[in-house]
Amino acid sequence: MRLNELPRGMEAIIDRVEDASHPDPVAGRLRELGFVPDEPVRVVATAPMGGDPIAVSIGFTRFALRRDEAARVIVHVPGQQPGSHP
Q: Can you give the residue ranges of the Ferrous iron transporter FeoA-like domain (predicted)?
């Protein structure tokens, strides 16, 4: 599942950040900010009508991401089958 698909309020674990190109400066910056494997992440707010941005938290830090940026972050919900959505 991609971070932009995670419902508001649900916590997931980051698996990886995908590069859209090589090199991908956005993916690199996400990793620098803490979007790294095994880190818990939660969507805390979304823009009206599914727009940009979405607010996500990692630890005590919140980030505003565009949906296309959040789509680079692959996550899983603990206890959920891979490929299934909540």
A: 1-77
